[in-house]
Amino acid sequence: MFTFDHMSRNLVIDIGNHSSKMFLFEGDEIVWRGQRATALAEEIPSYVHDQKFDHVIVSSVVPLSSRFIPQLNAMGKTIELSGSTHLPLKLDYETPQTLGADRIAAACGAWQLSEGNNVLVIVAGTCITYNLIDSGGTFHGGAISPGIHMRLQSMHTFTGKLPLVSAEGNSPITGKSTETSLRSGAVNGTIAELEGMIFRYSQEFPELKVMITGGDGQVLAEGLKNGIFARPELIAQGLNTILNYNVVNRLIV
After folding, report:
1. Given the DSSP bridges, would you call strands 127-133 and 138-146 parallel, antiparallel or unpaired?
2. Which residue in 5, 50, 54, 102 is the catalytic one?
3. What is the pLDDT of residues 86-122, one digit of tens each?
4. 224-238 pLDDT per residue, tens
5. With contact defined as beta carbons under 8 Å apart, do 153 and 164 qualify?
6. How deeply is 157 buried, as exposed, middle or buried, from its count of CB atoms within 10 A (0-12, 13-18, 19+)?
């Protein structure tokens, strides 16, 4: 695992498709949080101007203006997560340039918390990603499948009569209406998939720790009922780990 002793104040910025989240860390502790709509992402430098920080890491799924990073760099040394960013993990992945920033960050966060064990981190958002890191700190890749909302949307879009239903609500294993049957298939089917995938990974990687994060992480963790807990801020923690790694090794200028 990666250790970091200096109590640096780090600003972590995670810009997603719909919302932008900001976290201020002192060491490994979050001391401030902020959130803005991604449509207002260009206002983030002015939004965080009153916060005091030494270093910044930015992860974004949307293009940023040429002014964005320089504005932040004037307040604290800044890096933008990309395929060329130095990581505390080794990547055993054939196309690292296509590896999503959320998967990289979640993997680094999970490894930091794994206490040197094999760890599987599941990111449950629009898609569900499975990300395997072995006890030696090597990221092996994993799998990608549709998330709960995508499953519900696709059943409505690609059929003539099935309605679009919300993921929120009663989802008994045996639905007694079309609505609850659709929700059962999406929610309980996803839980069954996770249970099967976790089992297969644990057969290959003994003493496997499992962590789950993402927008649907909490509901899925509750459905699994096997001691797997949601870690809602794992991606932010992973970004902080990546930033600390670059600071300690003097890779940020």
Report:
1. antiparallel
2. 102
3. 999 999 999 998 898 899 999 999 999 998 899 999 9
4. 877 788 999 999 999
5. yes
6. exposed
Cα dist. 13→22, 39, 59, 92, 224 in Å? 5, 15, 6, 26, 30
Q: Is 102 a catalytic residue?
A: yes
What's the pTM? 0.90
The b-or-e profile of 222-244 (16+ CB within 10 A means b, else e) is ebbeeebebbebbbbbbbbbbbb
> Within 10 Å of residue 3's Cβ, how many Cβ atoms?
7
User: What's the token pair of residue 85?
Assistant: 């960013």
**Helix pair 189-204, 217-224: axis angle to 10 deg:** 70
Distance between CA atoms of 16 and 170, rounded to whole angstroms?
29
Gap between the Cα atoms of 209 and 214, Å rounded: 17
What string of DSSP letters covers 135-182? Answer: TTSEEEEEEEEE-HHHHHHHHHHTSSSPPP--SSS---SS-SSHHHHH
What tokens does 154 get?
Answer: 């696709």
Burial of residue 96, with CB atoms counted within 10 A of its CB: 0-12 exposed, 13-18 middle, 19 or more buried: middle
CB 164 within 8 A of CB 152: yes
